[in-house]
Amino acid sequence: MQSHELTRCIGWGAALLLLPALAYAHVGSGYSGGMAQGFLHPWMGIDHMAAMLAVGLWAAQRGGRAIWAVPVSFMVVMLLGGAIGMAGIALPWVEPGIVASVLVLGLLVAAAVRLPLLASSVLVGLFAVFHGHAHGTEMPAMTSGLAYGIGFVLATAALHGCGVGLGRLARRWASPRVAQYAGALIAAFGLYLGFA
């Protein structure tokens, strides 16, 4: 990645982080529409952050079309899970599914596993259902579901982008092993969550 590409990535990342400010349309009257709540939700749980960073790291390791296809698969299926959660439909094993996503995705990054693109997309989609359901069921009352959903998708995109960026930076300026070490840390955190 060249310096002008890195600057452009940082610029887009900063722009994504500013988008929730649009939800504060009426100063002094609290949140308007729920985009800010949706954007903040993934950042409030380190389990969500770890899994989403791992998706980006894994996509960067795979390279090619996986850099965008794997994160997009996660976000699309996460929206479906979010809609199920917002509708109040119960889904079994949500918390264990989230913990498993942190552990498994961390292990995939640590071992630099290269699955076919379709298998990678399906696997992250399976985990995305649980993350989306958690986001959807934790939506604050009296919040616009559409705005909230847009917010948590933007936050997820930003976290995936951070993971992809870290993976590409590691490959370009350090060593691919840096991403693998990050994956090992994520997997260790997932293991900790499983016993906590």
TrEMBL record:
Q: Which residues form the signal peptide?
A: none
Q: Which organism is it from?
A: Halomonas icarae
Q: Name the residues that span the membrane.
A: 41-60, 67-87, 93-110, 117-134, 146-166, 178-195
Keyword Cell wall biogenesis/degradation set for record: no
Tell me the Pfam families matching this sequence: HupE_UreJ
| Full protein name | Urease accessory protein UreJ
Q: Which UniProt keywords apply?
A: Membrane, Transmembrane, Transmembrane helix
